[in-house]
Amino acid sequence: MDVCIGLLGCGTVGAGVVELVRRRTDKIEALTGSRPVIRRILVRNPDKPRAVPLDKSLLTTRAEDILTDPEVRVVVETMGGIEPARQYVLAALRAGKHVVTANKDLMALHGTELLETAAEAGVDLMYEAAVGGAIPVIRPLQECLTANEISEIKGIVNGTTNYILSKMTETGADLGEVLREAQALGYAEADPSSDVDGLDAARKLVILATLAFHAPVRLDQVTVQGIRSITAADVAYARELGYVIKLLASGSCHQDKVVLQVQPTLVPKHHPLAHVDDAYNALFVRGDAAGNLMFYGRGAGSLPTASAVMGDVIEVLRGIGLPQVGVRGPACLRRVEVRPDLVPPRRYYIRMTVADRPGVFARIAGVFGDAEVSMETVVQRRGGRASAEVVIVTHDVPLHQLQRAVDQVALLESVEAVHNVLPLETDDEVSDR
Amino acid sequence: MDVCIGLLGCGTVGAGVVELVRRRTDKIEALTGSRPVIRRILVRNPDKPRAVPLDKSLLTTRAEDILTDPEVRVVVETMGGIEPARQYVLAALRAGKHVVTANKDLMALHGTELLETAAEAGVDLMYEAAVGGAIPVIRPLQECLTANEISEIKGIVNGTTNYILSKMTETGADLGEVLREAQALGYAEADPSSDVDGLDAARKLVILATLAFHAPVRLDQVTVQGIRSITAADVAYARELGYVIKLLASGSCHQDKVVLQVQPTLVPKHHPLAHVDDAYNALFVRGDAAGNLMFYGRGAGSLPTASAVMGDVIEVLRGIGLPQVGVRGPACLRRVEVRPDLVPPRRYYIRMTVADRPGVFARIAGVFGDAEVSMETVVQRRGGRASAEVVIVTHDVPLHQLQRAVDQVALLESVEAVHNVLPLETDDEVSDR
Hints:
Two copies of one chain form a homodimer. Chain A is an alpha/beta fold.
């Protein structure tokens, strides 16, 4: 039986979907009994050259050609952005069409509304491709791990910043330089703020945390720190200390109290997350029954993302004919309190520039001592003409206590600037030892 | 709605299932609409102390109390072994009961028969727990990655041998010593052959390869080499060369030609598989669209395995009431030719003991040169009184060509013994660089 698919958008991911449907039509029919046929593709400009050869008659600039076509059973949304994607997805769901989307922004901001609409309409809304590219993370959280109480998720979920940080680590170059290179190569957008400032990672964290903790959380509940402040010096100091800097998105939940953070973190070089380079993503999950799990793979790209989209489409095709009732929603079971203040005590890295004079370090150490922040490692280096650079790694300390010490240190007359305050990951995250 | 579960076996995994059902009854009901109730548990000895407190009235020694009870909708099989588990599972499926099993031996040897029976009966047969403990690997292969042509799977799938090799690497001890320790701790069976000789890993490989390649493969088609021959010397030389020894199960498929191997392999110390220690498992998958993926987590244990079992049970409960039709079978789409001879050229490690006399190494090198096997690294050490130990790492070489050279070297009068011939993993397995 032919099942008609309407495709919204034909950019990088959409072209990958077209390509995969072509490669796997027979296999998908053999597996599901349904033969996927791409019936219509919504594009802005039908004359634009595409990454895959396309019959012009497939293209349309009018969304209603897809959304009101009764032949279209499945709508695949790869256009990105909030509007008009949201309106189109709502219209498709209300018209009784199953929807598969790769749109993380949409799912992070409007996931609950869309999943409720899908449930009311008795259709599927699936979004494996919205987080982690090719890596199965949504389905394992929704299905395989549901018998667990998940206490923690943590990972590298933004490819652009991971590429930038990997290159900085590899070459010793500064962020601006690597960013310009990444933009030239198409790995970073002309306006890179959404990636570089951590917003993209925060959106993915919202999707993951909602599923993992079975509770609705919002983007404005994520404490976000991007990578703009990270310099070649930070990367070099981290390396000297045995670490690499990664942008980690993390969520923890204990007794309905949730902490959600996106921040550059020093990861020990033997930690598996330290080896997640370039455009790769990885996600750790800690469950009370399963223990620690990690999922790793390509976080973006045309075919990797299309692989996830088509995995969802195949699942929809398997279910077509069966009375599906939108059981795959976030299935929020509880309200939680998001408590950024509940970050557990941990180690921190602090880099500052100070006046190169006798007694300066003693004053800094005095402030830390008075605040009961104990220091594990101190590195001091000649900086500019009359200045020195000081890097301090603390022992475990509650964030508010550290913050108080850092604020006081920053007020010292001999301290020119506190550049970065970054947490350190411990080595025991992966194994239970 | 209460849904009654019959449990076959109440050992380590079965007790974990009882525990998880108790912890998560409310959550499962909220998610699926069905409230799981353990109605009966088949045990050999009702008087044996159990890891979970159990009402004696739940226990039975007669399988028919579960298999013919019309109230039992789902049978969970955690007894292990082939018979009578196979008969019980067949009877349950034919009686229209969904079955969730953690039994790798059963699925490796009789998976096709059982899945066909399930499809005929219109019920689910699920087995996520049969491979990789808590790690979702079956479901991702069956669902999320089905749009891919998978060319390779490779992983650490046996916890016992991984524990032994990890300890050997950590302590420098010999296999026998570590094995006795592992047995004392309950990490290895009294008769450890199934683990140590690679058979358990081979069975898991059969299950994974059948799913990944959509083709039925058999246990006798796997080339199996266990870890008995690995000595403290091999571990030390590997370390010196920058490697750790891991028992890898691997399957590759190119143009319907399949290679299936279980063998100890030198893994570069920066490779993520090198950091999979103790009872952890990991699986790499390479798909034409998804690229490289890795799944990592606890490969065994009571609650980790029960986590996978209950993930399946929850999926069955979600589907109860819907006309499921056993669509989750291996879905074999083709026949493949299993060709152990098609191992691609790769690097090998060879350790031998030779007479400590002038000219010996020249003769060995001559044999290798004549066979056109080129050497990358040679380490020579004083061995016993009049003997020396030689370790050779070759450049990439076809297996048959290497084998010919090694056979000839073994015939040299001055060569006392060739101890081990092990392949080396390359560093490019994970990233695409």
